[in-house]
Amino acid sequence: MNLYDPVRGKARRKELGLSAARLANLCGVSATAIYKYESGELRPSFLTSVRLAHHLRVSIAELVEQVVQDPADDNDGRAVLIKAIYAAEALRHETQGSGRILMAKADANAAEKDRAAFEARGL
């Protein structure tokens, strides 16, 4: 399941007047990857999604599709997603005032655990 909404990502990039190449450079990916994210052909990793949200100046929640979950399903995936959104928002607020990219300060172990949980759930 791909939670990244390519329409929202592309619209926001264009709204900010960013080229795909510039956004790619800021996020540490190729321009081709940005085009593939925006076409829905490729899904960004969790960390790349955090970087995209940061450089597009939006929350992670604004870059993901609305997912309707069957109430009969367990809520483990929702808990992981909520935790990831709060972590990304904390990082976003931390980096806004300084003007520097502080992605290195993100807890790599927590990000890896969240990424693994997302992949295990097919998100």
Please explain how this structure is put together.
The protein has helices at residues 6-16, 20-27, 31-39, 46-55, 60-63, 76-98, 108-120. Residues 98-107 have low confidence and may be disordered. It has a single domain (6-120), classed as 434 Repressor (Amino-terminal Domain), CATH 1.10.260.40. The longest helix has 23 residues, at 76-98. α6 packs antiparallel against α7. Helices cover 63% and strands 0% of the residues. With 123 residues, the protein is mainly alpha-helical. The protein starts with 5 loop residues before the first helix and ends with a helix.
What's this model, at a glance?
The chain has helices at residues 6-16, 20-27, 31-39, 46-55, 60-63, 76-98, 108-120. By secondary structure, it is an all-alpha fold.
Secondary-structure blueprint of this entry?
Blueprint: H1 6-16, H2 20-27, H3 31-39, H4 46-55, H5 60-63, H6 76-98, H7 108-120
Helix pairs in contact: 2-3, 6-7
Task: Kindly list the characteristics that best describe this protein.
single chain, 123 residues, 434 Repressor (Amino-terminal Domain)
What CATH architecture would you give?
A: Orthogonal Bundle
| Proportion of beta-strand residues | under 5%
- The string of secondary-structure elements, in order, is HHHHHHH
Task: Tell me the domain tally.
Answer: 1
The value of Rg in angstroms is 14 Å
Helix/strand/pairing class, anyone? mainly alpha
Biggest β-sheet strands, sense, barrel: none
Shape: globular
Number of strands: 0
Could you tell me the mean pLDDT?
A: 74
Count, helices: 7
Q: And the CATH topology?
A: 434 Repressor (Amino-terminal Domain)
Low-confidence stretches: 98-107
Terminal-residue CA separation:
5 Å
